[in-house]
Amino acid sequence: MGSLDSFNPATGELIGSVATVEPADVQTAVDDVARVQPFWGELALADRGRYLRRTAEILAGDLEEVTRLLTSEQGKPITEAHTMEVVPTIDALHWIAEEGPEILADQQVKMGGGLFLGKRATHSFEPLGVIAVIAPWNYPWSIPFGEVAIALMAGNGVVLKPSELTPLVGDRIRVAFEKAGVPEGLVRVLQGDGEVGKALVESSVRKVFFTGSVATGYSVGAACAARMKGAVLELGGKDPAIVCADADLGNAIDGIAWAGFANSGQTCSGVERVYAVSDVADRFVSGIAAKAKGLAVGDPQSWTTEIGPMVSAEQAAIVTDLIDDAVASGAELVCGGPVEVPGSPGSHIAPAVLTGVTHEMRIMREEIFGPVVPIVVVADEAEALRLANDSEFGLGASVWTRSRPKGERIGRQLDSGMVWINDHAYTHAAVQCAWGGVKDSGLGRSHSRFGFYECAEVKTMTWNSSRARDFWWHPYDETLGRAVRASSGLLYGGEESRVKVLRDGGGSLLRTGARTIRGR
Ligand code: NDP
To answer: pLDDT of 347-396, one tens digit each?
Structure first.
């Protein structure tokens, strides 16, 4: 067993260490969770819900400690540690505990009055067993937390592999559930590098919730497919924001600045491209540049800081390279870029606004994952839509307009898993809404009732009275053949065919019907 050190990205200080596992030991850990899970899976849904409500209650009391830890390890401003990470998960626990039992309750299937008259059928939602959650560093609390909570509500055990950059936050998720009495060993955290994640995917876990880069997502998806198990893949994004001519510009500027710069832009569903219709483009550019210049870059532990450090020097270098490439290709950097913050050895990037960018530039095609908003001026909304859809990504998109019908019309044509009108990205915090993308942004959905279904095996169970036998059972003979033809005509044919059917096949129908009654 080795160890992994965790450093504060703002101060460079060592804030803690965790023990790591060897890839060869991952299967044993999964087996350990599999031994605890059956007990949990047997609990009534309402009882599992009680544990989750208790987790919420304890977490509300631990809010200050958890948010401080998050900001120390990941670097996001303390306000965002509250608004974008921990408080939404407390809210999520309540929704999961409240709605989970209804979503996962057995469902009676309407069998109808046709071929299956008299049959009874039920869909039930069985736990999968052990689910793997592989998490990124950008929202190291809220992304895995919601997935773990829904997996638990559905009766599963969980093995969580946090990012190497945020191991302490990952482990704190386990502690949150255990403090509420969730059986020890039901949520297991495995620390280590990508090889540990790979071993987890290749282990006997029944499903993998993976959030991370597109390249790793493809390899995780392929490894799961080869083992006949499912994967929910939440990958990168290149979210467009379309600013229509009738947008409320003040609102669009504030909202897009928040969605582009929050968490220093290290958000998979952050605004990464703006298409502003020419009528309003100048006012939009000057408004968002003024807003960007006014945001406070600094110590993330301060309530007034709006932009913290980048998570690492490597991440800052990727963003700076993309800005430099755009400028070298003819774009104008209106404001922002790398800055020094007195007293902090961390890597800081002040919110950047770029104009004069073209569709071909790398900054408009690759994921930036930094506080940069590139703006393209378009003639009209049709051009915006065409450019927005011309991307390998399809996570989220926003439309800024005063007209709801117009926003919805554009929204339906956007190739993305989520569309927000006059807002952006916030529904990750609203666990009742489905989360996920199309194209290279991923596969499957987390959160919402669809996230529950991803954590369950849907089982069909039917009931037959043993006093009736099915008409399609042996023996096969002409009477049965004529009866089947007749019933098809009766059930699905038009008025004319019904009369003919009764005339030609009525007798066979009656004889076959009689044969279905046992004892004749
Ligand atoms: P990575 O893909 O590098 O890593 C994600 C997680 O997978 C980490 O825990 C990592 O471990 C682990 N991992 C690495 N290699 C493997 C492997 N071969 N098999 C299994 N697991 C592996 O992404 P980042 O952590 O760098 O996250 C940034 C990316 O994630 C961005 O592209 C971003 O857009 C995307 N993202 C998408 C979100 C969404 O909801 N769609 C949300 C957040 C991020 P380790 O850290 O030890 O390498």
So the answer is: 999 999 999 999 999 999 999 999 999 999 999 999 999 999 999 999 99
**Contact indicator for 446, 395 with CB cutoff of 8 Å:** no
Question: Does 444 fall in a domain?
Answer: no
Shared domain for 264 and 333, answered yes or no, is: yes
pLDDT tops 60 at residue 520: no
* Residues in contact with ligand 1 (CB, 6 Å cut-off): 134-138, 143, 161, 163-164, 193-194, 197-198, 201, 211-213, 216, 219-220, 234-237, 268, 367, 369, 395, 442
* CATH code for the domain in which residue 381 is found: 3.40.309.10
Domain co-membership, 385 together with 505: no
Q: Is residue 337 within 8 Å of residue 372, measured between CB atoms?
A: no
Q: How many whole angstroms separate alpha carbon 134 and alpha carbon 132?
A: 6
pTM of the model: 0.96
Domain assignment present for 465? no
Locate all alpha helices (DSSP H) within 329-431, ordered by sequence: 362-365, 381-389, 404-413
Range of the domain at 275: 239-392+396-426
Total structural domains in the chain? 3
Which whole-number Å values give the CA distances from 488 to 113, 294, 479, 484, 497, in the listed order? 13, 72, 14, 6, 10
- pLDDT per residue as tens digits for the range 21-65: 999 999 999 999 999 999 999 999 999 999 999 999 999 999 999
